[in-house]
Amino acid sequence: MGVIDRYRERLPVGPSTPVVSLGEGSTPLISSRSIGGRLGVELHFKFEGMNPTGSFKDRGMAVAVSKALEAGADGIVCASTGNTAASAAAYAARAGLTAVVLCPAGAIAVAKLAQSRAVGARVLEVRGSFDEALSSCLELVERGSHVLVNSLNPDRIEGQKTAAFEIDEELGRAPEVLALPYGGGGNTVAYAKGFAEDGARLRLISAHATERATTVASAIRIAEPAHLAEVEALVADGTVEPVPVSDEDITRMWLDLASLEGIFCEPSSAAGLAALAEIDLEPGSTVVCVLTGHGLKDIDAVEVLTASATLVDPNVESILAEVSR
After folding, report:
1. What's the predicted TM-score (pTM) here?
2. Which residues sit opposite 265 in a β-bridge?
3. Cα(158)–Cα(160) distance, rounded to whole angstroms?
4. Are 136 and 179 within one domain?
5. pLDDT of residue 304
6. What three-state secondary structure class fits 120?
7. What stretches in the chain show pLDDT beneath 70?
8. Which phi and psi (to 5°) does residue 225 adopt?
9. Has residue 313 been placed in a domain?
10. Is 314 contained in some domain?
11. Which of 2, 26, 205, 219 is most buried (CB neighbours < 10 A)?
12. Same domain? 173 vs 294
C-alpha cells in the first residue's frame, strides 16, 4: 500500500485522481543499538532508503506524478543532483509519461544516473550548477509542455509529509527531537508540515553542509536552497533549528552508521546524525534521525572513504594471516 492509499484523506487527491504508486512509504524505524547510548538518548533511524527507488523522494513523487496525470500532462521535468531524477524517472515510467531530467554535469552519482537511464528518462547533463538546471526547468514549464516535479511543486511536499505521520504512529507520539539533512529544504518543510498537522511540537534539526556547493555529500550539494525563504520562516518562529556540519563530521557518522548500526546509507543521510552530535540533547529523550537515501545510491563514496578489498591466497593460513593484522 502506497502513501496515497494509506493517507488519502490527508492528501490533495480526490476520487478521480489516478494512483501512481510503487509501494512507497511504510519505511522502517530502526532502534539504535550503539550510537544512541553514546548520545545518551533513545535514538531511532527512519530509513527512507527502503523506498522503491532508494530515497525519500518517492513519497512526494507518487503524489506529484498522480496529480500531473490527473491534469492531463504529457510529461514531467525536474532538476536534480540524483535522487529526484531517479524517482521522477521511475514514477513517470509507471504513469506512462515522458520524463526530462536535468542534472549538473559531473555532479550526480553514477548509480542515480543509471536509475534514471534504465527506466527511459531523457537525461540531460547541464553545463552548470543545480540552480542553473532548475532555472532551465522552470523555463520549460512556462512553455506548457511539462509539469515540474521538483519540491517547488506543492504536491511533493504533501507526499513527503507522510513520513512524519508514520513516525508518530510507530512511536505512539511525536519524538522530542527529529534531525534530517537540509539540501533544498523541501523535506524540512514537509516534516514541519506533517508534525504540525498531527498537532506535535518538537525540536526539528535541519543539518546543512558547511560548504554547501562543494560538500562530499552530493545529495545536499545545493548552493541556493529552493525553499530557503520557507525554512527561514520556520527558523524565525522556532520550529526549525539549522545546524551546520562539516564534511569530516558527515563522513565520520556515515562510517559509524555502517560499522556500529549495520545501516548503509548515502553520505548525505548522515548529516542529521552529525548535527545531533553538535547540539545539547535532553538525556533519555526520544530522538529520530532521518536517513534519506540508501548507500547504494552513491557507491563512489565507498571507494573514497573505506579501505579496498584485500587479495589473499585461497587457503586458511593466508586468510588468517590477513584477518589477524
Report:
1. 0.92
2. 294
3. 6
4. no
5. 67
6. coil
7. 302-305
8. -60, 130
9. no
10. no
11. 219
12. yes
- The one-letter amino acid code at 207 reads A
Rounded (10°) CA dihedral 156, 157, 163, 165: -130
Distance of CA 209 to the CA centre of its chain: 15
Instruction: Quote the mean pLDDT of the chain.
Output: 93
Burial 72-108 (b: 16+ CB within 10 A, else e): ebebbbbbbbbbbbbbbbbbbbbbebbbbbbbbeebb
Contact (Cβ atoms closer than 8 angstroms) between residue 298 and residue 111: yes
Sequence-distant (≥ 6) Cβ neighbours of residue 124 within 8 angstroms: 100, 101, 102, 103
Q: Using one digit for the tens of pLDDT, what is the confidence trace for 49-103?
A: 999 999 999 999 999 999 999 999 989 999 987 899 999 999 999 999 999 999 8
- The two beta strands, 42-47 and 29-31, are antiparallel
One domain for residues 104 and 223:
no
Residue 321 falls inside a structural domain = no
Residues 43 and 108 in one domain: no
Supply the CATH number for residue 35's domain: 3.40.50.1100
Phi-psi region of 23 (alpha: psi -120 to 50; beta: other; left: phi over 0): left
Pair (241, 296) in one structural domain: yes
Note down the domain range covering 228. Answer: 3-55+155-305
What does the block give as the cell for 253? Answer: 557518522
Relative to beta strand 42-47, strand 286-291 is parallel
Q: How far apart are the C-alpha atoms of 272 and 177, rounded to whole Å?
A: 11
Set of cell numbers at residue 108:
550526480
